[in-house]
Design brief:
This protein is α/β, with parallel strands linked by helices. It has 8 helices and 7 strands; from the N terminus they run H-H-E-H-E-H-E-E-H-E-H-H-H-E-E. The radius of gyration is 18 Å and the shape is globular. The chain starts with 20 loop residues before the first helix and ends with a strand.
Length: about 240
């Protein structure tokens, strides 16, 4: 695993963050050192997806990156037949993902698409996963995307949504941010790296509040909504169709 040192040297100005070749090379180290409970997220999302999968429907991983969840889900399905579609708009990410995919049985299908998730037509599905993906979609496009996801889900289907969030109370928002900085420092990031990464993500990653996400899910047609994992400014939602 290549160590993430992309922001260890002063940059002026700091360019906007993008999922390019440089990021892909250090992505696994970056995600483990930057996202609290990441391994737990991947493990439980894969198990939840296997639990809610309905034969003859598609499982979508929107923003599949280098395939960590795809591989976990392949293991969680334990030999059951399935059709899994991973979508990402980064060719570099999909290149690594394709190399890592496990060999599947003939009745198991894993398909990778390089596309904008706002522009693809969804097949009938029982599981949608957006793992730290919606936050990179312009806010004005998020309602429409979730409505289309809801319409594609079969009754009894599920949406698994994980997001970086902000708190509506400024005092708690500052507290959450402070503990997130502490988390990154404990994982070896310097003050310079944290500051420059924050600058790179500004206006690229736009977090919203938990109530905003919950309201959007209700408006999209999800009837059962819960937070199954929460760590300061990270939240994992489940929405039942």
């Amino acid at each position: 695993m290549t160590r993430d040192d992309l922001f260890s040297r002063p940059q002026q100005p700091v360019p906007p963050f993008e999922f390019n070749e440089a990021v892909v090379q250090v992505f696994d180290d970056m995600i483990h050192r930057s996202v609290p409970c990441y391994q737990e997220l991947i493990c439980r999302q894969a198990q939840l997806a296997a639990h809610f999968h309905q034969p003859g429907t598609v499982i979508y991983d929107l923003g599949c990156s280098t395939g960590n969840l795809l591989r976990a889900l392949h293991a969680a399905m334990a030999g059951r037949a399935f059709h899994l579609v991973g979508v990402d708009n980064s060719a570099a990410m999909l290149g690594v993902c394709r190399e890592r995919l496990p060999a599947c049985d003939p009745h198991q299908q894993i398909e990778l698409l390089e596309a904008d998730i706002r522009e693809i037509d969804f097949a009938p599905a029982s599981v949608f996963i957006l793992n730290l993906t919606l936050q990179f979609i312009p806010p004005q496009d998020r309602d429409g995307l979730l409505r289309r996801i809801s319409q594609a889900l079969r009754p009894g289907g599920v949406l698994l949504l994980t997001e970086k969030v902000r708190h509506e109370d400024p005092r708690l928002d500052v507290l959450q941010q402070d503990f997130y900085v502490r988390f990154k420092e404990e994982n070896g990031y310097s003050a310079l790296e944290i500051s420059q990464k924050r600058a790179a993500l500004e206006k690229v990653l736009v977090p919203e509040t938990v109530p905003t996400h919950q309201q959007r899910l209700r408006q999209a047609g999800f009837s059962g909504i819960d937070i199954w994992l929460k760590w300061f400014n990270f939240a994992a939602f489940i929405g039942l169709r």
